From TrEMBL:
Molecular function as annotated in GO: metal ion binding; N-acetyldiaminopimelate deacetylase activity
Protein name: Amidohydrolase
Cofactor note: The Mn(2+) ion enhances activity.
GO biological process, one term: diaminopimelate biosynthetic process
Source species of the chain: Sinanaerobacter chloroacetimidivorans
All copies of domain Peptidase M20 dimerisation, residue ranges: 188-285
Amino acid sequence: MVGRKAIYDFVDEAAEWAIGLRRGFHRWPELSNQEYRTSIRIKQELENLGIETEKVLDTGLVAIMNKNSNRKVVALRADMDALPIQEEVILPYASERKGVMHACGHDVHMAVLLGTAKVLNEIKEDINGTVKFIFQPAEETTGGAERMIKKGCLENPKVDYILGLHVKPDLPAGTLGLKYGKVHASSDMFRIVVKGKGSHGAYPELGIDAIVAASQIVTNAQSIVSRNVSPLNPAVITFGSFHGGNAMNIVSDRVILEGTLRALDKNTRDYLKTRLREVAKNTAKAAGASADVEFSKGYSALTNDNFIVDMIKELGMCEAGIDKIVELKEPSMGVEDFSFFLEKIPGAFFFLGSGYKGRENEGIHSGKFEVDEKCIKPGILIETLSVLKLLE
């Protein structure tokens, strides 16, 4: 059995290699469902290591190590897509694509996973099971996780546990962020079409003002979270778009409202939709108008398996050389489609501190977002040790 010192040496070597890969990914970012060049590069690097790969969806990849072990299977996932954001940081490996940037750290996620694959490949004869490496497109938009699952990425062989990570710039590199239980909210999008009756603005009594009715819907909907949901149960209703009217002296006959709902459990998620529909329809009716309400499903809430979080915490404290472990107390009302994996199998999603120590770091989804690449080595080490522990 390979010793821990040998693993640490392999991690040191893999981290330097992975930093170079990360810079290549950062230089050529690709938007959701367009990760063709990225996918080809990942496939080449894995095949150079002698690791079998399989295409899933147009740009997704699954690589398998020790496929026929007939023992437990652990999967690791990295997302691949960039964002339509112009990079503002001057770097020697800055994005060469105008208006496209890895502003959410997915370049780091891919590099860490490839580095982990390199380390595990060095000791594969001593690995007591099978490892799957899942490279997933479209986390930022259409939810590549759910589509990859439907295509069978968790089968043949069936995955027993899964791990995922995300950079966290408000924690310095070398820090690990862990959250027990609920980590991210679910999301649903809504579209409300309010229909009234047009008239000249000088004679409003001859019409039914859709703008007034829609404004009342927006106002009344605020009482759903403040008065219908427990203050101990986080929920969000956000109206992000309000479109109506064509002229300053015409009573509008139509308004379109669009927004998002966020919740941490299924019952609250369902209730928000039911109650928003009731409020919208009845408020419009009271104004003499009508409201049609449609919902589009987003991502599920992300809930960690606490046993696996405990395992990562112990490894981080005792073996992985993590500078500090921060236990996150509050869930995020943001979303992450790793949740679809955790609906199927036990696993954990954790956070890799990626900020520079001693300075204020810009958050993700910003053109000023920057990563301290010192985070890559501890990311590779904690993923490697977690895989070995889960396969014991």
